[in-house]
Amino acid sequence: MARLTRAESQARTRERLIASGRIAFARTGYVSASIEEIAEGAGFSKGAFYSNFATKEALALEIARFDTDEVVQATVTAIDHAKGNPDRMMANVAALARSLSENPDRYILRAELMLHAARSPGFAAAYQEQYIRQHQQITELIATLLYQLNVPPLSAPSVLASAVMALAQGHALLRPVGDPSSFAETLRTFLDTAVHRARLAAEVDKSLSTGQPRASSSEQPA
Questions:
Q1: Can you tell me the distance from the alpha carbon of 74 to that of 220, in angstroms, rounded to the nearest whole number?
Q2: 44: domain CATH number?
Q3: In terms of domains, do 47 and 115 share one?
Q4: Do 12 and 96 fall into the same domain?
Q5: Does a structural domain hold residue 216?
Q6: For residue 198, what are the domain limits?
Q7: d(Cα 62, Cα 157) in Å, to the nearest integer?
Q8: How far apart are CA 66 and CA 72, in angstroms?
Q9: Deepest in the core among 84, 114, 135, 145, taking most CB within 10 A?
């Protein structure tokens, strides 16, 4: 077996620390989890931790960034697999949301980081930077989805992205007293409504530009 290079060894150490941090944060929460606990869980000393992450905050942000990238890539795949079929596309996105809602740890960690940022001015800037990055990624996903559905957005994709992020975060926090699978249904309803309203608005704009009144629902062909 070939010996790992220094870069490969360091990358593997980071991966193990990230995995251990994810477990520790889920088990005891961001505030209660200690660097010693995280390092020991990964099989390393505190020195190894500090060789890879300056603070516990840095590790938590790295986990949150990794989670966002994972969700974005999974959503892109779900859209691509629909091969342009609108119903299949929406169903795939809803199925992905259902899968993600089964493990709310990523959302709970993000909520903890939001609270920490509100109480720690020094951390707030780093958290805000990552939030902007996440919001931009979700905005691009929304824009891609609407383009694939051939729907002119009624609201800016960035506004819709803010709403989707709030839905995901809210449902994760309500999970202990709510239905764990309800996020998928809520997201599907939200997206269906947004798409429907956008299509109606496009029809109205088209009828106004051509001078032809839009047919009522009773006049629409079966």
A1: 38
A2: 1.10.10.60
A3: no
A4: no
A5: no
A6: 56-210
A7: 26
A8: 10
A9: 145
- The per-residue pLDDT for range 17-41, each reduced to its tens digit, is 999 999 999 899 999 999 999 999 9
Predicted TM-score (pTM) of the model is 0.78
Q: Are residues 47 and 60 in the same domain?
A: no
90 and 138 in a single domain? The answer is: yes
Judged against a pLDDT cut of 70, whether residue 161 lies above it is answered with yes
Same domain? 63 vs 101? yes
**Contact present, 112 and 31 (Cβ < 8 Å):** yes
Find the range with the poorest average confidence among 47-61, 88-102, 165-179, 206-220. 206-220
